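Q: Sequence in, structure out?
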Amino acid sequence: MAGEARLGVIGVGIMGGFHADCLREGKVKGARLAAVCDLRPERLARFEGVKKYEDSGKMLRSGDVDAVIIATPHYFHTTIGIDAFESGIHVLTEKPISVHKADCERLIAAHKKTKLVFSAMHQMRSSPFHQKVKQMVSSGELGEIRRMNWLLTDWFRSDAYYASSEWRATWAGEGGGVLLNQCPHNLDILAWIFGMPKRVTGFCEFGRFHDIEVEDSVTAYLEFPNGSTGLFVTTTGEAPGTSRLEIAGDRGKLVAENYQDEISFFRNEIPTSEFCRTTKEMFDPPPTWSIKIPAHHGGGHREITQNFVDSILHGTPLLINGGEGINAVELANAIIYSSLTGKPVDMPLDGAAYEAKLKELIAKSTKTKKVKEISVTDVKGSFHK
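A: Exactly. Output:
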């Protein structure tokens, strides 16, 4: 395709509205906001001069759009995405690409029948900071990875946030809590840099800090194929929060903390394994160099959308192929499943078993919500660098 890509946004609530405004303001080159869709007509009213739909199927088959950004509640990412592919429409879906692994597989299977562009809004992939961390790990600069810890307690959300929509923080509406809403970004980066673990043990607390039925406090222990281990800790109920990624390898340690625009690298002069075998000292570790590596935080939603449009128009390689979004979902599912069953989960996760467990949670849910309509004019506070 050459020229201009006509984009539609399906779901123009908080995030969808942000994407639509970005397109309407001309912040994505080669793209035009051609249509918007939402079940609530009052959300559509402000988009003057743009085609408006209350039915996503009608938009997809209207001939008005070449591609769509899907920003609906999570379960609809799968059904609308499949409908889009079957209608010949390119898809960029908000995270997570689906609620559970089995639905991810259905969405990916539908895409494989086409030659359409499929991407996911995992915008942390576009950050030079995370790209640098990945490069250091992949290049072997740290040597074989022994351990990774990621402390992510800066995803604070208030009761007002959870009360803003009836679907939020419910098994039936969202399919989970912090792991399905905030942490898909981090879980995607984790899988991208380290690969998928071979076993997951999850410890979730459901509604510890908020009056919700899903997880808002999580600790997960990860075991990787090479014998390295990982610890992943997150919550939406802690303030002030911390973001600290620590990666220990045979040749040193990397620390990235609280969105500083540098990486601390403690470089062993001699790899730990070699020093351990050859030193005559009983207590002293190998000598190290302390190095500060500039790596600025940047990138974001617009960069992912621009990359998506460039792929449609010019065949530019995607920063994230939509099918890769299954990794973050599978990790989230496995952590929750392990916590619910009280047992470690061997990977790959049995998607059908988890889908059945999720349906059981939905059937047994007795939680009711009082929804409070809240006007949000600036969503930037929800973004991490």
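Residues 326-341 form the longest helix (16 residues).
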